[in-house]
């Protein structure tokens, strides 16, 4: 017995020693990281990043191109940089890319621009179009652009097509898929678990709830989706064809047409790309490296060509600490990016309260004379959308014009918050409209009954028994549907009032239907086609500003947040870039898609359960 107790005591002592060691190790590692960061801050003047003369700027873009990054803890951001985690879950700020390309054009130390797009996921045709325009503008300097890759996705190729020299690995891959919309449908699965789906909506084309009430896409949804997908695909083809000097008809959209050319290339995707004039040459990594070395020379290690990375170059031209504000008149930019949710949200999602607070901040800043509401959202909570719209109205009442600039999406709630602006600008490919609202929830009375679980009781009103464990009273369903109809009438009335249209005219182009920017302008839903810079100029003109600065209106960081942001921003492991490829499996992409659907539904928190959301807007 004593031997057993002794063994047990030794076991617990051993476990405690291990846990205590891990605890000390963990906190010591954190201390070391902070200490290294502190030293970096003290010595950063002696460790300045230098742009080598006659070097190449390697524009390595990773993840999605966004107009606002998601809120990330500074330590997590530091660890991603330190270990070069360029996963497709990362994000690249559009304005940083445009700033980098513009500066590199004027920078005499930069001799060539190299596009490394292997980690680029995409981000919307409007953003890719702005980068492609910046690349074309860069070429006016006479400096060449090289696009190199082991393979190219459709989004990556959109930018690569604007290079002077486009090289693909001899074992590489290139295939144009076009654009499609193939949601996952859950009706039969919900029936199997005996869940009851209750849907309340207005709009023939409001198909956001279809996955829960059908097993396939409705004819109305197919009609609307085919229209805007085809329009965006046409824009893609025309841009790439012009950049490559080929015909837009050169895209093999039929399997039979593709097979003829594929057979001529002996089943070799790289040869197919070369014969079809999609690339200029097939070259290995070493051949590309040697060509770039002959152009700019070797780096200090002699392992590669003389270069500076995108991240390091950006640190030089756009230091992490904010510039000191001046009293110059300003155009304020308020970013509204992500799903519209109630309450306060981190950057990357739109919070009804937090985004409204940014608009209030702009209204109370005497130096800000007009505001650009920069929207990239498929919508969300109708209540939160209205809270934001009310603050737009308050800005205008304060004498500050508001211009809405639509990025990739400004649909449903995204259009709601934009509708009241003095001017609305959209990109030709912007996905907008989807003017309609819906409400949906599930009840599980049959599921619970099957499991032998029941709900019963009494209440003081007929409303008190309302919940997911009991059947929905038809009269309660009528009340909810009537509320949705009122919300739809409120939405089209808002649009009619702000866009100088009749309710009948708005209803004719609403009904939850999606439009792209080109068509939306023809229909009167937007005023002009353009991008952020165009919207800024328009906002300045509306405020009669001849000389002005622009400022992003953001939540003020605390002293602690500023310290850690600067701390971890300096403690970065710097390494030469290498060409890498990333190819997540189709199965994992499917699983991620399901997770995104579930996560989106779980985030919805409108206090009335009423949403103006465009689920079909994603590509």
Description of the molecule:
There is one protein chain. This protein is α/β, with parallel strands linked by helices and 619 residues long. The protein has 3 domains: 2-46; 51-176 and 252-324 and 557-583, 2-enoyl-CoA Hydratase, Chain A, domain 1, CATH 3.90.226.10; 184-249 and 329-547 and 607-619, 2-enoyl-CoA Hydratase, Chain A, domain 1 (Alpha-Beta Complex), CATH 3.90.226. Helix content is 45%, strand content 19%. It has 22 helices and 21 strands. The strands form 5 sheets. Strands 9, 12, 14, 15, 16, 18, 19 and 20 form an 8-stranded mixed beta sheet that branches. Strands 1, 2, 3, 4, 5, 7 and 8 form a 7-stranded parallel beta sheet that branches. Strands 6-17 form a two-stranded antiparallel ribbon. It is globular, with a radius of gyration of 28 Å.
Rg result: 28 Å
The fraction of residues in strands falls at 15-25%
Structural class: alpha/beta
Mind describing the biggest β-sheet? 8 strands, mixed
Runs in which pLDDT lies below 50 for 5 or more consecutive residues are: 570-584
CATH topology of the largest domain: 2-enoyl-CoA Hydratase, Chain A, domain 1
The CATH class assignment of the largest domain is Alpha Beta
Total individual domains: 3
How many strands in all?
21
Distance between the termini: 68 Å
Mean pLDDT: 85
CATH homologous superfamily of the largest domain, by name?
A: 2-enoyl-CoA Hydratase, Chain A, domain 1
Instruction: Note the overall shape.
Output: globular
Q: How many separate helices?
A: 22
Which architecture name of the largest domain does CATH use? Alpha-Beta Complex
Approximately how much helix is present in the residues?
Answer: 40-55%
């Amino acid at each position: 017995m004593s031997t057993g107790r002794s063994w047990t005591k030794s076991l617990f002592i051993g476990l405690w020693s291990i846990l205590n060691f891990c605890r000390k190790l963990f906190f010591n590692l954190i201390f070391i990281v902070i200490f290294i960061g502190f030293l970096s801050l003290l010595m950063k003047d002696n460790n300045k990043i230098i742009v080598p003369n006659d070097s190449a700027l390697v524009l390595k873009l990773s993840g999605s191109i966004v107009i606002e990054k998601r809120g990330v803890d500074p330590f997590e951001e530091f660890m991603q940089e330190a270990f070069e985690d360029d996963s497709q879950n990362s994000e690249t700020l559009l304005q940083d890319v445009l700033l980098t390309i513009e500066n590199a054009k004027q920078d005499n130390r930069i001799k060539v621009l190299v596009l490394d797009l292997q980690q680029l996921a995409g981000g919307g045709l409007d953003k890719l179009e702005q980068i492609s325009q910046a690349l074309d503008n860069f070429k006016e300097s006479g400096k060449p652009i090289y696009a190199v890759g082991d393979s190219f996705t459709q989004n990556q190729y959109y930018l690569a097509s604007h290079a002077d020299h486009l090289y693909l690995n001899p074992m590489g891959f290139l295939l144009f898929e076009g654009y499609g919309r193939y949601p996952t449908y859950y009706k039969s699965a919900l029936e199997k678990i005996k869940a009851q789906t209750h849907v309340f909506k207005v709009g023939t084309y409001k198909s956001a709830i279809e996955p829960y009430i059908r097993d396939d896409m409705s004819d109305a949804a197919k009609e609307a989706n085919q229209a805007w997908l085809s329009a965006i695909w046409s824009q893609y083809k025309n841009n790439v064809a012009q950049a490559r000097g080929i015909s837009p008809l050169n895209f093999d959209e039929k399997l039979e047409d593709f097979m003829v050319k594929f057979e001529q290339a002996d089943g070799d995707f790289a040869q197919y790309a070369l014969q079809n004039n999609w690339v200029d040459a097939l070259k290995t990594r070493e051949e590309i490296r040697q060509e770039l070395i002959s152009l700019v020379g070797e780096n200090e290690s002699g392992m590669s060509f003389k270069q500076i990375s995108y991240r390091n170059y950006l640190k030089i031209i756009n230091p992490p600490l904010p510039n000191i504000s001046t009293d110059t008149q300003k155009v304020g930019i308020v970013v509204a990016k992500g799903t519209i949710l109630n309450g306060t949200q981190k950057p990357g999602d739109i919070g009804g309260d937090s985004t409204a607070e940014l608009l209030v901040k702009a209204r109370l800043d005497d130096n800000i004379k007009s505001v650009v509401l920069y929207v990239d959202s498929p919508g969300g909570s109708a209540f939160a959308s209205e809270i934001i719209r009310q603050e737009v109205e308050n800005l205008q009442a304060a004498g500050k014009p508001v211009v809405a600039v639509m990025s990739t999406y400004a649909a449903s709630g995204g259009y709601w918050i934009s509708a009241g602006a003095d001017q609305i600008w959209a990109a030709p490919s912007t996905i907008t409209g989807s003017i309609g609202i819906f409400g949906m929830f599930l009840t599980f009375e049959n599921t619970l009954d099957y499991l032998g679980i029941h709900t019963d009781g009494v209440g003081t009103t007929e409303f008190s028994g309302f919940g997911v464990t009991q059947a929905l009273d038809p009269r309660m369903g009528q009340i909810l549907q009537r509320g949705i109809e009122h919300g739809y009438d409120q939405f089209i009335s808002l649009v009619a009032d702000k866009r100088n249209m009749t309710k009948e005219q708005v209803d004719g182009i609403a009904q939850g239907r999606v439009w792209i920017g080109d068509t939306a302008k023809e229909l009167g839903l937007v005023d002009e086609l353009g991008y952020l810079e165009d919207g800024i100029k328009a906002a300045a003109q509306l405020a009669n500003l001849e000389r002005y600065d622009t400022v992003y209106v953001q939540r003020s960081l605390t002293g602690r947040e500023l310290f850690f942001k600067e701390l971890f921003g300096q403690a970065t492991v710097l390494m030469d870039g290498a060409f890498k490829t990333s190819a997540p499996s189709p199965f994992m992409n499917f699983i991620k898609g399901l997770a995104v659907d579930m996560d989106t539904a779980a985030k919805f928190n409108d206090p009335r359960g009423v949403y103006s959301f465009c689920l079909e807007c994603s590509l």
